[in-house]
């Protein structure tokens, strides 16, 4: 059975059979009543997953980067001041997008493996006014989770709009859009949301839509402009046919199935499951003497583990783990790319996946000639999984 492998990268992830069946079904017309029903339900479910009643949901063909650019293109005008809370590679990408759209960008940047503190961000706000603050909830290059609720409280206290990149967090890490007051919460389909790549998802607060309506200049991209998408999504929510650009009907049908599954599990149960399984992984890594990239456990994401390669072991470890039947990801952050590897643990991940992955890492470390006690990581993980 050489074609069976467990995909444990930080997206795309393993998808449920029902989600994959929705993709394989004959494509409906995008204005068929049955599809309108599906799209309308998916939009409502997206709100529920983001724990928002107030924010407006957008589902657009594109990847997470498109969701990031859509947020930026609509909220930022030439010369606007933006504050980037930078925790790694994807915060750098956010800065690049902001600059390209004309923002004056200030960064509060932490060393690799760390996150700017709420105090540092407060200090930045005390030195200057910002129209928008951006936060990468989980930076996939470092496995660092930012203190989203604390940072959003600071932005709100200063009347700044907020953009939270939830691509590697949504539906895995606790996030409460209304309670925490996030203006744009954006994500993509291929991680904890549980749908193959191809959908950019955003939920946008009334305050952010108001700021967009008050723009002095038009959005410089037709495809990204809320003006094109708002009427379409309003129509689908009201169960009426509409068209701007052909929606990816099968992906949207798959999204509806996946969001239905997520909500059946329940968001609180989902957050807890991701936390418990991440703790099992971290216990295993500790027992194997592996070091997390995040400098403290409190900074470590529950959706992936970013780890340093142990001394004497190079990036070929990932290939050796693959030969054991588990697909992991190499390093991504330029400063630690050659010295790190990453294990995704999102969506349908379960205790058996934890054990299969830890077991494969143990065997691969041994094959690299690393001194490892086979079973030490497994025993530590079992200790957490047993509860
Ligand atoms: N933000 C974060 C935190 C991500 O992890 C990713 C993708 N790994 C992106 C943005 C970009 O998403 P995409 O690759 O789907 O464009």
Record keyword descriptors for this entry.
alpha/beta; Aspartate Aminotransferase, domain 2; 2 domains; 14 strands; binds 4'-deoxy-4'-aminopyridoxal-5'-phosphate
Shape: globular
| Domains (count) | 2
Q: Structural class, judged by helices and strands?
A: alpha/beta
Q: Which architecture of the largest domain per CATH?
A: 3-Layer(aba) Sandwich
Query: What is the count of β-strands?
Result: 14
CATH topology of the largest domain: Aspartate Aminotransferase, domain 2
Taken as a percent bin, the fraction of beta residues is 15-25%
Main sheet overview? 7 strands, mixed
- Strand arrangement within the widest β-sheet reads 2-10-9-8-5-3-4
- CATH 4th-level superfamily of the largest domain: Type I PLP-dependent aspartate aminotransferase-like (Major domain)
Which CATH top level class of the largest domain fits? Alpha Beta
State the end-to-end CA separation.
33 Å
Please give a quick description of this structure:
The protein contains 14 helices and 14 strands. It is an alpha/beta fold.
């Amino acid at each position: 059975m050489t074609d069976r492998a467990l995909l444990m990268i930080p997206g795309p992830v393993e998808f449920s059979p029902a989600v994959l069946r929705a993709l394989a079904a004959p494509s409906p017309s995008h204005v068929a009543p049955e599809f309108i029903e599906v799209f309308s339900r998916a939009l409502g479910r997206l709100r529920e997953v983001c724990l928002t009643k107030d924010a407006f949901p957008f589902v657009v063909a594109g990847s997470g980067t498109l969701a990031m650019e859509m947020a930026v293109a609509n909220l930022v005008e030439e010369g606007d001041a933006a504050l980037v809370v930078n925790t790694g590679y994807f915060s750098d990408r956010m800065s690049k997008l902001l600059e390209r759209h004309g923002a004056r960008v200030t960064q509060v940047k932490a060393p690799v493996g760390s996150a700017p503190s709420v105090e540092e961000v407060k200090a930045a706000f005390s030195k200057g006014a910002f129209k928008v603050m951006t936060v990468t909830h989980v930076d996939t290059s470092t496995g660092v989770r930012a203190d989203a609720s604390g940072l959003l409280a600071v932005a709100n206290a200063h009347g700044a709009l907020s953009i939270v990149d939830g691509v590697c967090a949504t539906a895995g890490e606790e996030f409460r859009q209304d309670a925490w007051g996030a203006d744009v919460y954006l994500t993509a389909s291929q991680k904890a949301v549980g749908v193959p790549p191809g959908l950019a998802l955003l939920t946008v607060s009334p305050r952010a839509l108001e700021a967009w309506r008050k723009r002095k200049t038009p959005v410089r991209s037709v495809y990204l402009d809320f003006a094109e998408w708002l009427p379409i999504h309003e129509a689908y929510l009201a169960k009426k046919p509409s068209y701007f650009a052909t929606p990816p009907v099968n992906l949207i049908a798959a999204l509806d199935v996946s969001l239905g599954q997520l909500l059946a599990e329940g968001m609180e149960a989902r957050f807890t499951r991701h936390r418990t399984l991440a703790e099992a992984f971290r216990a295993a890594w500790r027992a194997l003497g592996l070091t997390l990239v995040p400098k403290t456990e409190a900074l470590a994401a529950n959706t992936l583990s970013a780890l340093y390669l142990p001394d004497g072991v190079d990036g070929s470890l990932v290939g050796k783990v693959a030969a054991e039947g588990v697909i992991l990801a190499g390093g991504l952050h330029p400063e630690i790319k050659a010295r790190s590897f990453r294990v995704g643990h999102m969506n349908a991940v379960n205790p058996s996946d934890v054990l299969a992955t830890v077991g494969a890492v143990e065997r691969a470390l041994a094959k690299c000639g690393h001194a490892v006690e086979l079973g030490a990581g497994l025993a530590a993980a079992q200790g957490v999984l047993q509860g």
